[in-house]
């Protein structure tokens, strides 16, 4: 599988992905083999169904939201570049020299981008605000059925109230950043990709 | 604890018996069991440090028999009688000197007293204790005490006895550490911990051992030290392990960041397995002789390590499951819940010790494993008990350990000084610790998400403290087989003292100098709770997508398993159905509430000054009651919180929320705990209070039955249910337990109020959750929701009006106290009943707004306002005074009112769920039932006249201030005017006692 992956992936493409995402060569080829194994249609793109076939994702309460996060708005296919771009959010932040190659724009795995990824999971309608309803939906997914609507509602209200500084009854991205400023997002939104 | 005496005895025996008093069996387990006979032998001279004179009087036999009397309480009487005869020659004496009878517990108690008083003294000077760690002071004190003993007795009677240490002192500390171990943090760093604990300890042990041997060969270490390679390896093994007691004592004062702490501390706990195995293996090697050791023995050693560590862990986990399972069924015997926790955790330790497995590992994992389930199962009070008892025991055990370390050091007979050995050991353990840490960190950082930087490594190297475990192990050595034992003992003592005192003293400045990130005691906010959970899910999903079977993957798998099987098995049904997030939410709410109460308490105290004038204006007697009541409550709140749990620096911006919280959650614990805790605060006795409460409740419910007969049964059930529900609620609340007294301010009125409210809107509202009572009220008051974020607003679900764009300024403008701070709003004079609430409200808000000015957001002041407008709306004729200048707000409030009306018609679908809950919480009901039944003779009292529900604006008006206040001030005001008020003396008599 690995050999097949590397043959299908052109060297310059790897370079570009490397530049964009900061993944290492071996990580890219490894993830490409994963990509192709997920790609049942073998057309170089993943559809939502391809993701939904992952068994663990089916039981993940936020699974659907995360799958959605892989797809650019309005599309239902994602190619390897897009796949890697999304995964790159979760690359741990390494020592500064690594990030220099994309000095022009912020690297995908910056704190802000990590937070933005999480924020987008809540923000279904992409209005850059987490409304109460949007928050409620996510909460409902996470807590399951053990909790009443009222309880959930009070949690949501409290959450919004705590974060909301401008009084619009929703959480903007800036408010989201602010409310999580004491959290070690760099660590808590990173996973270790095998080298 | 009896062993403390044995300690003395053994010390004496050791002193006389050429250093072999402890018997020194090779293994720790057997040693513990075999040592008691030694001191019990009659030949041991009595260890009477504290009272040297009686010793001469009584002689050895008396002590021996006293000991046996103490050891076998059953036969104590006979023994004592015989002794009396023996010593006093018969005849009846009016006063008898019973020293030998009380000796053991007496000495123990005196020791504990000395240790505790020493602790108090150390903390007299704040500046001093911030510089010098307590452990240093305790060791110094021990040295002094040891010197006194030595001078008085010419030989050392006391020492840190291994049996005492391993069987009693160490488990209390480890149990505390394990039970309160932050599990998530521990497992997040498990890889690093295991690495340092296993590889690091092995590295330290071998390197120290071999280097010392090399030093011996080179000649640095004196010839008198008769030790070969195996002896040095043995010594290296026992002296190289980082000690949990020392690490805890020192690091708890340093407050390094959590990750660093958990790595060092986790290492010190987990390395026990390595130490035990190395120690055992070397001892057996020493016994058979180095030349007879075969290759297979090395493999046996490795196998032994696996068995000791894994076995110990498994024993701990088995006991954890057992503990969780048992606490599932303690609903009706809440009082012994803490005992189960202590017993099973301790049994985990002893059982592991019994099979010579790693007892520390066993206990640690028992604590970690059981904590989640036990905490969820046992009652709030039990949780507090467990926490405080564990902390107390651990603290005193730590104190004793350090004092005895000091005392043990002052014992010439055990010392054999060799400068070469001591200095070499010190240098080697320090160097190898540093090398080991750096090497391992280098490896670990290749795998760690967050690498450990240089500063971390320095602190970890420097934090490799040795302590009492090493000392106890070295004392356990057999002087016959390890001929250099005395040298080793001396060296170990020096090493322990050096690490604990010198490094312990300097680590704080070092940490400061290196600017190591400190830990913050900040509690997570609800946002952090939610979003971090989301992060976990996201990471798990991403790992799954990326095809990695990483940490999050397995953690998720574990959580699934836990949720599907373990929690089902180990958690009560009622607890199992609760959501963790909800629990977290509750905790946060309560925390905030407490902080607000703290502030509110102060506000009320200041408000008190203005109150008398108001009361003079008041025409109704109830009003006077209200004022008194509130005043007392206010000051009571203030006092108690300051005494018990002052939460300084609370977030002012959450005040608004916390008002709600008060309304929504807090009345429960208030009712729940009042009887239990009032013991401490109310010398008048809880009986009286309970009676009063029951009486008042009774009256209320009767009134309400009068009001709306058709809902009579329904409501009664509900009030019962609520009380039951309060029991279940308690599980979620962490803090209230401690802030007891404000909870029992007035347990009576609140439920009544809510019931009355229900009576008023006689729709069959649904009894949503246990803590519904006030929420309902608050919701009602809340309904004109200009403030969109209110918690109760959430309860209305989709009814909530569309997020009205609200501007802070308009908000402010219709806050009466905002309009003209200092001058009472016009409405004050409209009706006498309203005077107090408004007044208080103003005082409150003045302080709030003053606080508010510190933290800019306009939010804090809001909570009051919607309610006020609600009041005005309900008050009918009155609203003009409250109508905000902004006409927009006025219209919103009326819209909100309509919405609110709609939202009150809750379906009754939840009733059945309630029933189930009820069964679960029957225990609580049992507490209540006798009182209720005894004081509720059906129809005995004519219900007081009460306006028909919902029809009289007057009643609503009069009640409203109370509603408002209740949700506003911590303590609810006394019952509303219509019912016969509680005897004025009641509330008054309550106040002073609380004060």
TrEMBL record, chain A:
Its main location: membrane. It is found in: Cell membrane; Cytoplasm; Nucleus. Keywords: Calcium, Cell membrane, Cytoplasm, Lipoprotein, Membrane, Metal-binding, Myristate, Nucleus, Phosphoprotein, Protein transport, Repeat, Transport. GO terms for molecular function: calcium ion binding. GO terms for cellular component: cytoplasm; nucleus; plasma membrane. Belongs to the calcineurin regulatory subunit family. CHP subfamily. One of its GO terms (biological process) is protein transport. The keyword Metal-binding applies. This is EF-hand domain-containing protein. Signal peptide: none annotated. InterPro entries: Calcineurin_B_homologous, EF-hand-dom_pair, EF_Hand_1_Ca_BS, EF_hand_dom.
From TrEMBL, chain B:
Residues 113-513 form the Cation/H+ exchanger transmembrane domain. The keyword Nuclease does not apply. Residues 725-747, 758-767 have a biased composition (Basic and acidic residues). Residues 911-924 have a biased composition (Acidic residues). Residues 23-46 have a biased composition (Low complexity). It is found in: Cell membrane; Recycling endosome membrane. Residues 10-46, 62-87, 701-820, 849-995 are annotated as: Disordered. GO terms for cellular component: plasma membrane; recycling endosome membrane. Its main location: membrane. Residues 708-724 have a biased composition (Basic residues). InterPro entries: Cation/H_exchanger_CPA1, Cation/H_exchanger_TM, Na/H_exchanger_3/5, NaH_exchanger. Keywords: Antiport, Cell membrane, Endosome, Ion transport, Membrane, Signal, Sodium, Sodium transport, Transmembrane, Transmembrane helix, Transport. Residues 1-17 form the signal peptide. It is a multi-pass membrane protein. GO terms for biological process: regulation of intracellular pH; sodium ion import across plasma membrane. The chain crosses the membrane at residues 106-124, 131-151, 163-181, 193-212, 232-251, 260-282, 302-327, 339-370, 390-409, 421-439, 459-477, 489-511. It comes from the Eukaryota. Residues 10-22 have a biased composition (Gly residues). Residues 939-951, 971-985 have a biased composition (Pro residues). One of its GO terms (molecular function) is sodium:proton antiporter activity. Belongs to the monovalent cation:proton antiporter 1 (CPA1) transporter (TC 2.A.36) family. This is Sodium/hydrogen exchanger. The lineage of its organism: Eukaryota, Metazoa, Chordata, Craniata, Vertebrata.
């Amino acid at each position: 599988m690995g050999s097949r992956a590397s043959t299908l992936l052109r060297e310059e493409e790897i370079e570009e992905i490397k530049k964009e995402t900061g993944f290492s060569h071996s990580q890219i080829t490894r993830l490409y083999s994963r990509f192709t194994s997920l790609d049942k249609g073998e057309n170089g793109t993943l559809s939502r169904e391809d993701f939904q076939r992952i068994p663990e994702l089916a039981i993940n309460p936020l699974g659907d939201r995360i799958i959605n996060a892989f797809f650019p708005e309005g599309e239902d296919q994602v190619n390897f570049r897009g796949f890697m771009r999304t995964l790159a959010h979760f690359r741990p932040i390494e020592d500064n020299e690594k990030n220099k190659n994309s000095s022009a724009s912020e690297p995908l795995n910056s704190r802000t981008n990590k937070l933005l990824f999480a924020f987008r999971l809540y923000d279904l309608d992409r209005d850059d605000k987490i409304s109460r309803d949007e928050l409620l939906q996510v909460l409902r997914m996470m807590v399951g059925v053990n909790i009443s609507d009222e309880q959930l509602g009070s949690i949501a209200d409290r959450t919004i109230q705590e974060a909301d500084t401008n009084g619009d009854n929703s959480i903007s991205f800036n408010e989201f950043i602010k409310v999580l400023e004491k959290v070690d997002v760099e660590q808590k939104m990173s996973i270790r990709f095998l080298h | 604890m009896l062993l403390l005496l044995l300690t003395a005895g053994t010390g004496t025996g050791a002193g006389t018996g050429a250093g072999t008093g402890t018997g020194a069996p090779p293994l720790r387990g057997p040693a513990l069991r075999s040592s008691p006979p030694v001191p019990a032998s009659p030949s041991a001279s009595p260890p009477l440090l504290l009272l040297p004179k009686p010793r001469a009087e009584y002689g050895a036999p008396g002590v021996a028999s006293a000991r046996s009397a103490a050891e076998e309480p059953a036969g104590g009487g006979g023994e004592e009688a015989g002794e009396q005869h023996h010593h006093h020659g018969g005849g009846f004496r009016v006063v008898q000197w019973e020293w030998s009878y009380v000796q053991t517990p007496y000495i123990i108690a005196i020791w504990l007293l000395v240790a505790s008083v020493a602790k108090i003294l150390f903390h007299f000077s704040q500046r001093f204790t911030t510089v010098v760690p307590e452990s240093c002071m305790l060791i110094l004190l021990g040295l002094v005490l040891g010197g006194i003993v030595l001078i008085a007795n010419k030989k050392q009677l006391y020492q840190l006895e291994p049996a005492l240490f391993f069987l009693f002192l160490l488990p209390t500390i480890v149990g505390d550490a394990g039970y309160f171990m932050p599990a998530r943090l521990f497992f997040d760093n498990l890889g690093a911990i295991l690495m340092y604990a296993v590889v690091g300890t092995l590295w330290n042990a071998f390197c120290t051992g071999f280097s010392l041997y090399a030093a011996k060969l080179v000649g640095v270490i004196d010839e008198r030290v008769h030790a070969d390679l195996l002896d040095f390896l043995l010594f290296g093994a026992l002296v190289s392990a980082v000690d949990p007691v020392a690490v805890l004592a020192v690091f708890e004062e340093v407050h390094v960041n959590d990750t660093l702490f958990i790595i060092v501390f986790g290492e010190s706990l987990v390395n026990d397995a390595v130490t035990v195995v190395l120690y055992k293996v070397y001892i057996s090697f020493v016994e058979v002789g180095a030349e007879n050791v075969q290759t297979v023995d090395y493999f046996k050693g490795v196998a032994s390590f696996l068995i000791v560590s894994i076995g110990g862990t498994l024993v701990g986990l088995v006991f954890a499951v057992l503990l969780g399972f048992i606490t599932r069924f303690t609903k009706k015997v809440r009082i012994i819940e803490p005992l189960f926790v202590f017993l099973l955790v301790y049994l985990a330790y002893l059982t592991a010790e019994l099979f010579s497995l790693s007892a520390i590992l066993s206990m640690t994992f028992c604590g970690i494993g059981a904590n989640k389930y036990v905490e969820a199962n046992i009652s709030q009070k039990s949780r507090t008990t467990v926490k405080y008892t564990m902390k107390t025991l651990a603290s005193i055990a730590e104190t004793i350990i350090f004092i005895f370390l000091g005392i043990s050091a002052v014992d010439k007979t055990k010392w054999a000084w060799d400068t070469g050995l001591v200095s070499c050991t010190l240098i080697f353990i320090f160097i190898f610790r540093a090398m080991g840490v750096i090497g391992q960190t280098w490896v670990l950082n290749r795998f760690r998400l967050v690498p450990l930087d240089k500063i971390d490594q320095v602190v970890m190297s420097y934090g490799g403290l040795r302590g009492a475990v090493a000392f106890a192990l070295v004392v356990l050595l057999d002087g016959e087989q390890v001929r250099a034992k005395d040298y080793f003992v001396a060296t170990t003592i020096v090493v322990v003292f050096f690490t604990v005192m010198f490094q312990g003293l300097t680590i704080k400045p070092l940490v400061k100098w290196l600017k190591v990130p400190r830990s913050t005691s900040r509690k997570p906010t609800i946002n952090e709770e939610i979003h971090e959970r989301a992060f976990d899910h996201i990471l798990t999903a991403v790992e799954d997508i990326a095809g990695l079977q990483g940490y999050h993957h397995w953690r998720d798998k574990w959580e699934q398993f836990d949720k599907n099987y373990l929690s089902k098995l180990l958690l009560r049904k009622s607890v199992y159905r609760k959501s963790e997030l909800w629990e977290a939410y509750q905790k946060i709410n309560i925390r905030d509430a407490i902080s607000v109460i703290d502030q509110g308490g102060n506000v009320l105290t200041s408000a008190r000054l203005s109150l008398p004038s108001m009361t003079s204006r008041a025409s109704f007697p109830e009003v006077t009651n209200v004022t008194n009541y509130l005043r007392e409550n206010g000051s009571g709140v203030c006092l108690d919180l300051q005494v018990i749990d002052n939460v300084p620096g609370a977030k002012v911006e959450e005040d608004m929320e916390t008002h709600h919280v008060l309304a929504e959650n807090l009345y429960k614990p208030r009712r729940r705990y009042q009887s239990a805790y009032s013991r401490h605060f109310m010398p008048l006795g809880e009986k009286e209070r309970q009676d009063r409460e029951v009486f008042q409740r009774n009256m209320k419910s009767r009134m309400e039955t009068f009001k709306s007969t058709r809902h009579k049964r329904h409501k009664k059930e509900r009030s019962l249910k609520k009380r039951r529900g309060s029991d279940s609620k308690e599980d979620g609340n962490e803090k209230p337990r401690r802030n007891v007294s404000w909870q029992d301010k007035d347990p009576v009125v609140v439920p009544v109020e809510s019931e009355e409210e229900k009576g008023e809107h006689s729709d069959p509202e649904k009894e949503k959750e246990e803590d519904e009572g006030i929420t309902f009220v608050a919701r009602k008051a809340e309904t004109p929701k200009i403030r969109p974020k209110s918690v109760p607003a959430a309860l209305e679900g989709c009814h909530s009006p569309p997020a009205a764009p609200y501007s802070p300024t308009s908000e402010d403008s219709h806050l009466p106290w905002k309009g003209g701070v200092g001058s009472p709003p016009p409405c004050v004079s409209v009706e006498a009943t309203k005077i107090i609430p408004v007044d208080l409200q103003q005082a409150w808000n003045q302080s709030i707004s003053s606080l508010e000015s510190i933290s800019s957001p306009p939010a804090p002041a809001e909570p009051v306002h919607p309610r006020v407008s609600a009041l005005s709306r309900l008050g009918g004729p009155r609203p003009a005074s409250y109508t905000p200048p902004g006409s927009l707000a006025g219209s919103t409030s009326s819209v909100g009112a309509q919405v609110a009306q709609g939202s009150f018609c809750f379906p009754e679908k939840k009733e059945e769920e309630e029933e189930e809950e009820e069964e679960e919480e029957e225990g609580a009901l049992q507490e209540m039932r006798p009182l209720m039944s005894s004081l509720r003779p059906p129809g005995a009292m004519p219900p007081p006249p009460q306006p028909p529900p919902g029809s009289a604006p007057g009643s609503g008006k009069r009640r409203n201030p109370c509603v408002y206040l209740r949700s506003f001030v911590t303590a609810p005001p006394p019952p509303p005017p219509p019912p016969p008020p509680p005897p004025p003396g009641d509330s008054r008599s309550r106040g002073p006692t609380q004060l």
